[in-house]
């Protein structure tokens, strides 16, 4: 006679899959292992759910951090705009003609106005710059007139893109000359159009009448721009000292992290310091905050050249609350193995400076996180 339990085991085992029958364990042990695995999987899923909930709760902190970062960027931009107002008046946006009346400019700084236009072809990636005319230029010659002409640059490239014809014996010249430059749209935001107006002199050095800088980032390239703008008077203390050479470097500031990066790019036309008619230049960079020299770094020495290229970058920690009281001194030195290195020339940029140095600093603050490159004339 067969028992009931034997009948149940036989019936149950008959419904089990073959791979379970092949396991050399009794059925209760297999069930216990399956239950333990199920509990382990459930615990793992529960941990993952808890982590997701914690992350969701921490999102407001990230939003606050992002808000603080946005506030810091806006603070840096507003500081840059306030500094830029000390350099030259802002130009209104759009394609309307703007008349810059002389009474809006300090009479001692007023050197006339220049009318120009800019147009960008997105299909061919070509920027067309036109010098139209000038008015109220100062008399540079004994006869009460001037012989003006204009040079156009697309900074940071210092190679002349256009030199207009000289308009003799006039204070209100008409040029109507254009230049078309092929430049990708992605590079335009870091470019600045520079108009330099000179008075031609056959027998001596040409005199600078004034400059006009138009950052392309401030121009709406979707519309054709045509307007009058007041020239900025040339700094007589710095014009004419180019015999020391020029230095090109970039400034980049990240206000949220307090990082100021100085990129030393190149120099040209440096003064000859060695007997052989050359120099061994390097650049010494000094960070000054509240009148104290806190950090200094220097580039590699470039042997026997007056047009060195470095392409080196150096980072300084400058909190945003200290950026107003900060300045950078870049001294181009001539290396001497036997004696002390000689100073060729230097540039000082900061919020307390003026002219091109102040403009470079304000452009850096107005465009946080973006490197702003510019050429500077070295001074003693």
Q: What can you see in these coordinates?
A:
The chain has 380 residues and is an alpha+beta fold. Helix content is 24%, strand content 36%. It has helices at 4-15, 18-21, 27-85, 185-188, 355-366; strands spanning 113-121, 126-135, 148-155, 157-163, 174-182, 192-199, 207-215, 225-230, 232-233, 246-254, 259-268, 281-289, 292-298, 309-317, 326-334, 342-350, 372-377. A five-stranded antiparallel sheet has the order 4-3-6-7-9, with no helix packed on it. Strands 5-2-1-8 form a four-stranded antiparallel sheet, with no helix packed on it. Strand 6 (192-199) and strand 7 (207-215) form a beta hairpin. Helix 3 runs antiparallel to helix 5. The longest helix has 59 residues, at 27-85. It is elongated and about 120 Å long. The N and C termini lie far apart (120 Å). 24% of the residues are buried.
């Amino acid at each position: 006679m067969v028992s009931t339990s034997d009948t149940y085991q036989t019936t149950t085992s008959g419904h089990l899959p073959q791979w379970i029958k092949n396991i050399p364990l009794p059925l209760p042990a297999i069930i216990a292992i399956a239950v333990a695995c199920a509990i382990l999987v459930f615990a793992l899923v529960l941990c993952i759910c808890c982590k997701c909930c914690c992350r969701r709760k921490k999102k407001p902190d990230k939003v606050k951090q992002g808000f603080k970062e946005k506030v810091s960027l806006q603070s840096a931009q507003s500081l840059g705009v306030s500094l830029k107002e000390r350099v030259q008046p802002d130009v209104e946006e759009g394609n309307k003609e703007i008349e810059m009346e002389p009474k809006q400019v300090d009479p001692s700084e007023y050197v006339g106005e220049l009318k120009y236009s800019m147009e960008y072809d997105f299909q061919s990636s070509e920027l067309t710059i036109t010098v139209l005319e000038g008015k109220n230029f100062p008399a540079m010659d004994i006869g009460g007139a001037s012989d003006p002409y204009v040079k156009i640059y697309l900074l940071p490239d210092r190679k002349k893109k256009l030199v207009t014809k000289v308009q003799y014996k006039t204070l209100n010249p008409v040029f109507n000359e254009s230049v078309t430059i092929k430049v990708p749209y992605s590079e335009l935001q870091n470019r600045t159009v520079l108009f330099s107006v000179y008075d031609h002199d056959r027998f001596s050095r040409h005199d600078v009448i004034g400059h006009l800088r138009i950052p392309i980032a401030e121009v709406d390239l979707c519309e054709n721009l045509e307007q009058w703008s007041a020239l900025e008077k040339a700094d007589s203390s710095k014009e004419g000292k180019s015999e020391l050479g020029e230095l090109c470097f970039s400034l980049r500031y990240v206000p949220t992290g307090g990082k100021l990066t100085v990129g030393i790019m190149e120099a040209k036309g440096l003064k000859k310091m060695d007997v052989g008619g050359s120099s061994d230049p390097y650049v010494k960079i000094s960070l000054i905050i509240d009148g104290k020299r806190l950090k200094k770094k220097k580039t590699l020495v470039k042997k026997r050249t007056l047009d060195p290229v470095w392409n080196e970058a150096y980072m300084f920690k400058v909190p945003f609350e200290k950026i107003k009281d900060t300045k950078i001194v870049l001294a181009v030195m001539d290396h001497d193995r036997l004696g002390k290195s000689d100073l060729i020339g230097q540039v000082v940029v900061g919020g307390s400076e003026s002219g091109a140095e102040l403009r470079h600093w304000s452009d850096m603050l107005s465009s946080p996180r973006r490197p702003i490159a510019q050429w500077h004339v070295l001074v003693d």
